[in-house]
Fold:
Amino acid sequence: MNLTLKIWRQKDANDKGKMVDYKVTDISEHMSFLEMMDVLNEQLVGSGDQPIAFDHDCREGICGMCSMYINGEAHGPDRGITTCQLHMRMFKDGDTITIEPWRAKAFPVIKDLVVDRTSFERIQQAGGYISVNTSGNTQDANAIPISKIAADEAMDAATCIGCGACVASCKNSSAMLFVGAKVSQYALLPQGQVEAVERVQNMVAQMDLEGFGNCTNTGACEVECPKGISLENIARMNREFLSASLKG
Ligand code: SF4
Ligand code: FES
Structure:
């Protein structure tokens, strides 16, 4: 395949940035999207130009680093996958592909397609943990009975990889799907009850402090989420928040 790529280039956080056109040729349909980007970068380095900065680590849908907005969709045109799992067979010869970074006030661009997502880390630090007695009397986790339904729902919530696609695809740049998943994964389990009240209050407060917008039930986040995190997690977070407020 021969393709035209329109890619966001931005030298650093202070640069205004602009879209730049590139051509790539002989791209195999079996390549992943990031392998196609590697081909372009080899081309750029070979001609003495700056390669395009983009985040990646695992390249297998686990780490949540590969944040690219492709043809107006977070993680591109396929469903239930991250950018690193996107294959070039989703495109055809002669296509023009537009590639941008996540766009949200709370995810400032560092360079080209790389954004700063430490706001997510700070939300996690505000409540994404449990207290466990490590004094020698630690209870074996398997000794605590948990219903199959609660265990399955907690596991589903825990599959969130913190990629930020939910924020990028939301017209309000809301992080409520992410925070809803993180709150839910503990709220559904007995181990998460010790800090339940402070957790939801602190995580929501940090989310607001970071400048994320509010949820208006559009549902774009759920559609674009590579892990299929359900909007039900936002509803659960709202219930947890209301209940925490009543408990003071
Ligand atoms: S909820 Fe989905 S889209 Fe949002 S950070 Fe988690 S995995 Fe990514
Ligand atoms: S590089 Fe890890 S999820 Fe894509």
Q: What stands out?
A: DSSP finds eight helices and seven strands in the chain. The two ends are 60 Å apart (CA to CA). The pocket of FE2/S2 (inorganic) cluster (ligand 2) is lined by residues 56-59, 61-66, 82-84 (CB under 6 Å).
